[in-house]
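Record 1 of the preview.
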Amino acid sequence: MYQVLYRKWRPQTFDDVSGQEHITTTLKNEVQSGRLNHAYLFTGSRGTGKTTCAKILSKAVNCLNPRGGNPCGECEICRGIENGSVLDIVEMDAASNRKIEHIREIIDEVQFKPAKSRYRVYIVDEVHMLTTEAFNALLKTLEEPPEHVIFILATTEVHKLPQTILSRCQRFDFHRIPPRAIADRLLYVANQEKAELTDSAAMLIAGIADGALRDALSLLDRCMSVSMSIDDEVVRNAAGLAGKDYIYELAACAINKSTARALEKIDELYAESKDMSRLCDELIAHFRALMLIKSVRDPRAILVMSDDEFEQAQTQSDYLSVADIVYYMDVLSRAYMRMGHSAGDRTELEMAMVKLSSPELDVTNEAMAARITALEKAVKRGIKAVQAETLPEPKPVKKEEPKPEAPPEPKTEEPKPEKAEEKPKEPPKEQPKPKPAPPVNKQAQNVDLDEIYRNAKPFPNWVEVVESLKPISRTIAASFSGSTAYVSGNYLLIDTNNEMAFDLLRQSSQRQQIREIISETTGRVYRLGPYKRPEKKQEKTDPMQVFKNKLKESGVEVVEE
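->
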């Protein structure tokens, strides 16, 4: 009879256990030194090796020829435990044997010495399912069992255990097995089974298993039923997953607000019998990856994906803020929670995608708050764009000509005795005015800004310039993504609503990098500045007030008349 892979390839020694070295090393040392505990508690998520380690430990403590803390697997006791002929090892499922009478049977049995082995070992799986009365009956025996008895309790929900039980056991927490460790084990098993498994397919199975090696082996078993040559496509078909290209395309529909395209893609996937709830879960996982890329210093070490997929994810993350990504995940999570309880999984996913691609249709408090925040940011960006570095500077230059009338005012106070100290105070306050002005004065005095804007023409090489910025700085490239540029004489004017772009232009080092890329692309050196849209000319503020505000920002006191 065929034996499934997770049973056939269950580890027989501590050294074979994957991803739990912090536990297996301790258990081997205890077996070698003879410092065995009377009660162990193994806790962790499913498929991480709790029951496997319990069985290996039951062999190791009774093995006639232990090897470095591992059971030999060849002696009479090891073979007897494996085939079930040694009755001193009792494995009990607490889910079906949870009542007090079942525990009383164990309490009566522990008084008898083992028939063949050194220790009588009781492995109680899913121990959190025991009733309160059963736990209370077990307490005394668990605290002071006979010398020949060892209890090994295993559970996936340790928070349901009474503190009185926890305090009487030596606890071991099993971690989710890292994807790389799962993939290596899958490659080994596939090689032994004469199957061809690609590394990328093994990593895909590991990602789907979510840290559970048993689930990974079960999926590999399913893939081998389809084909003995297993690649990504075989894994996706066996698991019922949508291809990554569809995931990226659906995410792009949400980012680009393309409702029709999103619904068409969902219809295609539904026609291919893709699981809609699994597709929704994959979309949530995809946006989680974008969130990590935006937030974590080294996301590559956390995310399980190929280099090409990571590059695509980075590109998509450039078009979203962390707030946008969290909002997308929230909408999809709410849809995922409602699946199976309402109109249908497909309908729920379609409604979620419509909300993402048409935010005005989402009337939840979170959606309204996100839209208000976006409007506030847009208003702030508009104000910042008018007062960007290179455009406002020429305005004070033009109006500085009548400004020299200000110095004569202190001169009228010269006849006042002993007030001369005030004279040196005022000139330093006005000294900052000429400092920023000279570089602009030389080129802007004879230049009409309105004429520059009127003559501005689209800059055809701007997309190429932004692409060339990516190898130098992905942050700079993302800041100017979606922007346009205009050229007017020696001026290159950039049109964008992203205020970060203008913050970068104010930094001399970043501005110089952009100039160098433009020079390499066009062979010319331009002066950089923001483009002032024609409709915004009517929204000019009072030039004198702008000049006073700039003086205040630079620390110069301005006396209002």
